[in-house]
Protein 1
Amino acid sequence: MTTTESDWTDVARTLGRGGNMLRGTIYHTPFPRGDLHVVSDGIVITPALALGTHVSFVRYADGSTMVMGDVAVTEDELQQVSDAFQSHGIALTALHKHLLAQTPDIWWTHVHGHGYDEVALARGLRAGFDLTGTPPAVPTGPPIPNDLDIAGIEAALGAKGSPDGVVYKVVFARRETICDGHLVLPPGLGSTSAFIFQPLGGGRAALSGDCVMLAEEVQDVLGALRRGGIKLVELHNHHLTENPRLFFTHFWAVGDAVELARGLRPAVDATNVVPAG
């Protein structure tokens, strides 16, 4: 169903912060881990690059609500947060890394819930979040200028992106209709490829993100990333009951931002995606 931010007031109150609408059907709320000082490959990771928790709510015509998300937790937080989610009916659907050799160790757990009480779903998420060091929400400021060649990145990838604080992000969505169990997912929910560039100065960037694939696309994508000098981090699923079956690979690289984008383009072309806009 199409909704507006005002339709999610009780969810926002329960989560302790407001969210925003994506494409008229997805109520999305970020929880950046600004409390963490994480270093990977000698680079201090900004929350927007790879330290964010995100949850998305969708309402269906039968009055039910689905929520899914990706939660960043420290290794010390992981077990108690997992217990809290499960005790509140929030399912865990994946557990993995987004970064190589990071300090401290950070894990990402994918969560999923479906029911007729959206506030209860939000309460279950909040029970887990409250066991982490996730800081309170802060007002969003204007995009921070950076020295990345945005036009070059977009030309290389064949898509427009958008700033997110200090980073620049380009997102693609699967063309297929994706179902989770018997529920059709709105375009882009749980089925996107995201390429995030953190500027390092001199046109260089740290690149982090993930690429969504069908099984028959996986080897072509992995090969394309490696030929582009991009390091593989994970190959895994985010869902349990989706159709068609989706696989995700997380990756990492440091270098000239436009050259990194050129290295990503063959991987994009090997998948059935369109720019998410």
Protein 2
Amino acid sequence: MPELPEVEALKDFLAEHVVGHEIVRVLPVAISVLKTYDPPLTAVEGREVTAVHRHGKFLGLATDGGPYLVTHLARAGWLHWKDRLPDGPPRPGKGPLALRVALETGAGFDLTEAGTQKRLAVYVVRDPGEVPGIARLGPDPLADDFDEARFAALLKGERRQIKGALRDQSLIAGVGNAYSDEILHVARMSPFKPTSSLTPEETTRLYEALRTTLAEAIERSRGVAAGRLKAEKKSGLRVHGRTGQPCPVCGDTVREVSFSDSSLQYCPTCQTGGKPLADRRMSRLLK
């Protein structure tokens, strides 16, 4: 799933390629992708793109005098830029193409979604705040006013595991499964640690890991073409998706905990005092 760093990079890429250009056609291929009907999708056609914004994991294109075109790439969605779009409208079918946006230059981009769980979403709204997922977002962890005191205040009173808190978009916007694993590895903290047990020193460590991990991922992605961002993300991860490989910090074997539809990765030596975590389906920590 694209998370804050990749969406930030896509925002910068699109700002460079679409701002100042006119959207001439928006062609939905998968009817399930469109989540709004008023304004209609055609309301952005014939309008110039004036800005590109990121809201957590959402991307929003602002148009001159018109509505916003907002998308959430969900778990298996992606954006593919084309300097020259194919001639003729795309044909609906069983392929991954969900929506195409064409500019007056002949360039544009496709939104695609792999797999059978169709969760990629496109909204046409007068204000991004009309999108329910954006309206529920917590603060952006890289915002200038997101200091340690604000972070500590968000965690105060939470009664859950820190991995789940970091992934909660209503608490902190933009962090998902991959970067929560990375942040906790940098912070040397178990993903199952209760937020209520965090000491002030641990809160400081977690805050610094959150900010540095995301900022470094954005820096690695800066200037990378949209088509190479997935590979760039994977190459920069230290524990997520690296089950069975050596931890780059201590050399211990990266381990995994599986859930019904996802998994997490961690280093026992760096994060859990050398103790492997039980599979969460067993709902306990090995002592």
Protein 3
Amino acid sequence: MLELLQSHHRLGGAELARRLGVDERTVRRYATRLAELGIPVEAERGRYGGYRLMPGYKLPPLMLTGDEAVAVVLGLLAGRRLGLPGEAAESALAKVQRVLPAGLRDRVQALRETLEFTLEAREGTRPAADAVLTLAEATRERRRVRMRYRSWRGADSERELDPYGLVFHSGRWYVTGHDHRSGETRTFRVDRMLSVEPGTASFEPPADVDPVRHVLGSLASVPYAHEVEVVLEATLEDARDRVPPSIATLTATAGGVLLRTRAESLDGMARFLAGLDLPFTIRTPDELRGAVRDLAARLVARAGR
């Protein structure tokens, strides 16, 4: 029962009884026994009541099985690889290892020293932990926040935001929500927030809100040198399988799927389109046609060698 309460914020009596294979009377007896051992288990009455450990209670020294220790270490190592703050992951790993039994600690250290990743390491940004936690709490409680934000141009602004969700992508933390300054759903980088404070106003998010899709769509629309529109001769489902949402937006249109994106290099866009292996028609820019012809000529020349 203690293990279940450690891993869940709150569990109802019936759910605890089901997981433990006992009746609810036995669950109540277990809760009393834990309290007698000095472990404060709170019993909450009512429809949404249940059992939970008292907030802030510090459990005895960490006890992990071999599988649990491997799961924690792999999670922290993979997190560092994905771009999560390295110092925090390193200190967490050190704390976990300090409380492991000697034999298991040595085996976990061997894993750290020998494990390799095929995934390329990313250099992550490090937002303030308080900002991440404040936004997470506000998202869960549907509470508006006030923030000071610095744009990529270096301009500071004060905003009120109804946060819909936090998203970690390519080494960076993002929050998406309704920005009351612009009146639109916007995406903000958390590491550019100079301060975040919870407000008092509440909100209801749209029924179809999808923070991940919105963040990826926002990244796909970041300003670049060229606006690109290409019609792919494919179904929308097939196009979505080949084109990540962070690269372009896709909409059904007459004759196929309209791909809209922005590109810094038309040569790179030509290679991307060729890699899709789909017939396509270029709408804009006209210069992309030349880049595609140049790519085709280079490939023909290499094929003849």
Protein 4
Amino acid sequence: MTKDHSFNHSTWSPEELRGALAAAGVALWSWQVDTDELLMDGHGYELWHVSKAEPLTFERLSEKIHPADRDRVREAFTATRAVVGPYEIDFRILVGADVRWISARGQGNDAGIKNRKMSGIFLDVTLRKNAEESHELLAGEMSHRVKNLLAIASGLTKITSRSSSSLEEMTEQLTSRLAALGRAHDLVRPLPHGNGDAALLGDIFTVLLAPYDDGGAFAGRIRVAVPRLGVGENAATGLALVIHELATNAMKYGSLSVPEGVLDVSGAITGDIIEIRWTERGGPEVEKPTGAGGYGSKLLHRTLAGNLGGTLEHDWSKEGLLVTLRISGARLSS
């Protein structure tokens, strides 16, 4: 007869179980449904950042739940009073200024009308949730960029057709513009660490805007005059994203969408602040957009504030759009 080497509950000592729970970051809880009394182990109090000095109830603990999730969690826990079996819910809690993601997993118990009890665990899943949010942002950003690139390719074709006298000339110019667009797009990608010094501020603007400038009779409608400053490796990608987004909008809706439109980019230094003015003239009449703005608008503000420590302002005058960028000099050179 062969031995059965499968484990059973008696295989694990209380010390081993406690060690495994601690290593996994698991907090235990038990909820007395009728009295609302809630018990947690030591890690649970640390996770929720609540004091052991006062009796703990689910109502008191739910005050720590993020306001956007609070009603949803209360409704879920209330619903589980009538449910027997396992359940799981993820939500955010506030610990000072920090936001933590908690996964509550438990088991309902219908052992009698009185003394109804539910038990389970709390897990800190903040890292996983942050990773999921980052992936969603990246997916949204990539989708946005692909749509922009398609719109840019169409716009570049129209620009090239205006300044070409033959199919061969148009083919040559369009190929050159698309190659320049490819070089500009390289600046939008994150620079590998230690990949050398980034370009000068004026060079970045010139390279990124080169594909949009016309040739022939329409040549020279994009002018760049900014201070001679070095852009650090960390700031180059964020700045390139901003320029790329503004140029795409100008191609779709602004001064670069028509032959007579012009774009002037100028800059000045005030203390540690670099102010850049993006001025569009000669394009379609400008109307201020309604609503909260699309993904591109959110990307601009998030990049300016997060990557460059700066701000962005729009002046929607009928003569043309004026965008003012204010960037931290220290952040630009980092």
